[in-house]
Amino acid sequence: MCFIMVGCKYVADIYPVQFVKTAHPLSVGLVLVGTAFFLSVEMFLIVPMIFDTGGVMYKLAWLVAVFIVYNVLGNMLACYRTDTSVASLPRDRQVPEPEEEHLWHHCDYCQTLVPPRSWHCRLCNCCILRRDHHCIFTATCVGHNNYRYFFWFIIYLTAGTFLALASHVLLFLINKEMRRHYMLFHITNAFSFVEPTRKFDLTFVWINLIFVLNAYAFTFSLVMVAYQIPTIYLNTTFYTQRDSQYNRGLRENFGTFMGSRGVWTFLSPTIRSPLPHDGTQWETRKPSATICEC
Ligand SMILES: [Zn+2]
Ligand SMILES: [Zn+2]
Would the N or C end of the chain have less CB density within 10 A of its end CB? Predict the structure, then answer.
């Protein structure tokens, strides 16, 4: 994973324009095609072999699948469409107040002063408010204004791929006929005293290929979520993971990213949840309580 990220960053630094033109369509296309593929396979192939297609459980599975896909694609689109650059600020906020001027720093690319925690992105060619990182899967920078959408995007990607993986395990456990089509069945049988059953037909190839792709998609999403844990826990960013100077406590940090509606933003990207500030004024960590020696 790190190898891929370092490789991408290396190419992006040398050929930023070509990287954007190539990596963005490929990555966004991968998410769209992957979502459509896993949704179709799950709901028309795997789940009908687990639940009766006329029953309540199958309808419930459709409801969950549609909710997850809506939030994956909705948050992905909202992340892309939400401008989090310094230029998105009202004109009078793009220059510092006299008392906060010492906190702002100069961007050599934009040739102007920018707020604290704002950094220049060579791919977006502008400065981003509380820049976290440039995400090729949402084709934009993730920063102060759109972090909420990025967060739910990867959470729902992880949830979707996990449930798809769980459905394979369930099918393996309850459907004796299909069990023989999984590689796992043949591996466990090869080590037992029971005569191993060999049945390598086309269904065997497809079901195992889907299973492996699903396992990879889940691992990839889970790693993306894992990278965000320090970001929320310490109120830091992807490139400054050990910097805890803005840590205001988990509850306050979460509110800074998610806005006034907090965790309820999980329901839909359309829920309005105003952020506590415009991304130019950052308070450092709360001073620890002093011990009274009297
Ligand atoms: Zn800049
Ligand atoms: Zn960017």
Answer: C
Total domains, the chain: 1
Measure the CA–CA gap between 286 and 293, rounded to whole angstroms.
21
Counting beta carbons within 10 angstroms of the beta carbon of residue 165, is it exposed (0 to 12), middle (13 to 18) or buried (19 or more)?
A: middle
Query: What is the token pair recorded at 131?
Result: 């820049």
| Domain extent for 174 | 22-82+148-266
Task: Answer whether 254's CB lies under 8 Å from 262's CB.
Answer: yes
Helix axes 250-258, 147-174, angle to 10 degrees: 100
Q: Between the CA atoms of 165, 169, 172 and 175, what dihedral angle is there, to the nearest 10 degrees?
A: -90
> For residue 225, how far is its CA from the centre of ligand 2 (angstroms)?
19
pLDDT digits (tens, 9 = 90+) for 114-128: 999 999 999 999 999
Residue type, 115: P
Q: In this predicted structure, what is the pLDDT of residue 196?
A: 54
For ligand 1, the distance from its centroid to the CA atom of residue 132, given in whole angstroms, is 14
Residue 230 lies in a domain: yes
Weakest mean pLDDT among 12-21, 33-42, 70-79:
12-21
Cα of 73 vs centre of ligand 1, distance in Å, is 29
Check residue 185 and give its pLDDT: 73
CA of 72 to the centre of ligand 1 (A): 30
Nearest CA to 187 out of 166, 172, 203 is that of: 172
pLDDT of residue 73: 97
Question: If you count them, how many residues does the chain have?
Answer: 294
207 is a domain residue: yes
Ligand nearest to the CA of 111: 1
User: Could you tell me which of 155, 141, 115 has the C-alpha nearest to residue 258?
Assistant: 155
**Residue 197 lies inside a defined structural domain of this protein:** yes
For residue 142, report the distance from its CA to the centre of ligand 1, in Å.
15
Residue 57 belongs to a domain: yes
